[in-house]
Amino acid sequence: MAEYRLRTPVSEEDVRKLKVGDIVYLDGIIITGRDQVHRRALELAAKGEKDKIPVNLEGMALYHCGPIVKKVGDEWKIFGFGPTTSARMESVEADFIREFRVRLIIGKGGMFEKTTQGMKEYGAAYLAYPGGTSAVATSAVKRVVDVHWLDLGTPEAMWVVEVENFGPTMVAIDSHGNNLYTDVLSRAKKVAEEIKAKF
Amino acid sequence: MSDLRESIKSGIVTMMREAAFNVPRDVREALQRAYEIEDNPVAKANLEAILRNIEVSGKTKLPMCQDTGTPTFFIELGEDFPLKSELRSLIEDAVRTATTEIPLRPNAVDPWTYKNSGDNTGRYVPIIHLELVPGSEMKVIYLAKGGGSENTSKLYMLSPVLGLKGIKKAVIDAMVDAGPKPCPPIVVGVGVGGSADMALKLAKKATFRRLDEPNPDPKLAEIEQELLEKINSLGLGPMGLGGKTYALGVKIEWAHKHPASLPVGINTQCWAFRRSEAVFDSDGNMKLLVPP
Ligand code: SF4
Asked: Inter-chain contact A82–B233, Cβ cutoff 8 Å?
């Protein structure tokens, strides 16, 4: 197990170094994207209109998060920056990684086979942010740099956020086909059968 | 009379505010212990983040979790308490005020149109469980229940021939199914008997018993302890990423049942256990019992 402090955007080389169980803290820009960001970005890509995506996602960290925000004067302030459940993005995440070459996906609860394969093929990793720890995440926010696609509503919009020492996040899926969630769960299933047989 | 209403309303708002930035002491202590006994580095980092989050939330008044929950009330209403049928509208009022003042995320959505009411009230929301008891006081338990951990609740309508073994197996199955989803470490409430609806209500109620308070029935206390050990031996750990502590406690409540049924309700409560308890006297004065 190693501990890293990475600055976004990250290179493929950096991501390939990460192994499940490593702990990562992030500096730099994080971009939020949940259900609607995935849908819209992939629709644009399918129409050959990638240039309409307002930010360059290559090497970026995409955060499954619908922040709690408030406009104070001219500035957006974040009051809640905890992760949302990543499983909802499972069906589209591998495509998203292929199309836009994001290198880090941050969320909670983990992702499954299709994403794990996508991460292996294109060089990306999944970082688990401890579920519910919104106050810690919020205090790592330096500023809101920009926001796009506000028409989707504030939780669904694409927030471009500068963070400092954002973490701890744990590498739960690496770019070598390892998935800590499914490992832990399949072991638990085996133990559960043994326990139940003894009741 | 209007003073009475005002003080109950502000008392409820206070209860909601207290719960928003804190977890009860027994939960905090159990998380601390889990951290101390852990040697898996990933699990330790998760628990450290949780403990730090509780501290930061208390200090900065940033919400503990971005999901500020569904406002839920369990009320024991004294039959001589001066206010009864107006209670619902009064609590709704308090919830509206708390939602803008604290502030809370609006979480009440119409299931047909998906329109958010914007103020945490709506049809049957806040959720209120009311019981009439003797006396002139009102005891209130407030829970801000997160969606993620409510989603992994389970109801098993077992065949009564399965008995205790069946109940234990159901609890283990529910945990494997829940995995990382309810943001573990969790508190597990188990409601046995009654009816389908009663079992689930008892399961939620069971989670309110303090973690360091075993079941008053020694036989059930033993089952709670056994289940806790078995659940943790699954190795799911904090956030389902492996480790020693998946559950902080298992709490059982029960009711008599129909001979042909064995309902088992299971409620999962995330570590962000935002709960407060208070007693109101007949003049509306509130005494906060939890968090201490
Ligand atoms: S399950 Fe609890 S800790 Fe996790 S996101 Fe929901 S409310 Fe927050």
From this structure: no
